[in-house]
Please model this.
Amino acid sequence: MSLDRNLPLVDLNRPGSNEPNPTETPDELYGRLNRFLTEGLDYIAGFTPLDDSDREDPDTALSRTQLLSLLIGFLGCDTTEPLDNRTYTLVYTDGEQSKSNYQTICVPDYRAASPILFTREQDNRARLVNRSTGGTLAEVLVHARIFAASNHYYSRVAPDFTELPTAAIISPYSTCAGGCLGCSRGAVKSFTPPPKDYIERHVAQLAADYDRRGWDRGELVSVNITTGCQPDEDRELEMMLNLMRTYRRYGFGNAAFHAFTYAIDSTRAMELLREHGAIGFIGTVETINDAERIRQWGRKKGSITFEQHLEKYRRARRVGFDIVETDYVLGADSYTEMLDGIAELDENGVAVVPNIKRNYTVEQLDSNHRDLWLHGMRYIADGFHAALSSYDNGTIKRRAARYSVDYLRRCGREVGLRDLPIRHT
Model:
């Protein structure tokens, strides 16, 4: 069964869609981005973080430093490093709240117009500098350099940023049938044809890495299957089930799986995922507005309307998934459309995982709604806070964080949830 067989296509000519400005010079683009940075810094300076000290989980309120990391992540940076290093994962630490958080940043095609300079220092440290003033915006740790589509990475770390064996985000299928226009991997052309035995190779590589590190394979409790998509539901389901079976065969007996997919839609396919060990279902709503979804993500994934996404997530709950999430990329929707859509997803038991768009191209940059440019960091802060309030529906991150605390305590370390660095993406 092909998922998009009967899906309606929506009107691509919605009034207010943003188109790239072909007459904007590099100097004008720099001026626009520098204004956004300056106004964003003013907003952050006057921002009062919410007091979440009464909450067990520290992931529902943004610190000033988290807001800064989102501002920097949205704008991208210039650098003197080799340009095959197009994406970095950085660690920011807030001095007021002692919270650390991860956030990615890209080196865009328009890097010369970026108002932010990335400078590498020693011992995996780096500095982000305001180009116009020369002042330091942030001193950060460089956690990773992303060269291409990665096979896997460990998504939970200890307070000292050492990787833990408890959770992995995996991407064994190194190409994708989606052809999504807004995809970061598509923008940097990092997809590659996978070998026929890509699943076996992936799991064998992960198992060998566990052995090399001296980790017990039984400590892996969370596997987020966020990989390239197959052309239809049947082949997507076959890939997911084969992955789960292969993990079991290699001794990862305690792993619970979370399927990130737009192609799986039917109740029967969801039931088969549950029967094989999936406890999480991750959708790909990406935007609230249907026209923008198809314009920015293409006809394959974008043709699934918001109402169809909602019904899919209700179906996943009825099937029995413990966790139902959806990815949401801030920027494509109007301010009110964003907040109303997040609220509706929340009311339907969906945890909305917010992402800030990495704009590798001017076209991606200019695909953001005019409300983002009008409201600036208020748009980003309010959107993130609305999404984070939905985390009480249950998230992969919170489940993995609890297992990570348990693991560290068994290793003799006195830590709690608030000691772990925060990941929202």
In short: The longest helix spans residues 26-45. The radius of gyration is 21 Å. The longest strand covers residues 136-146.
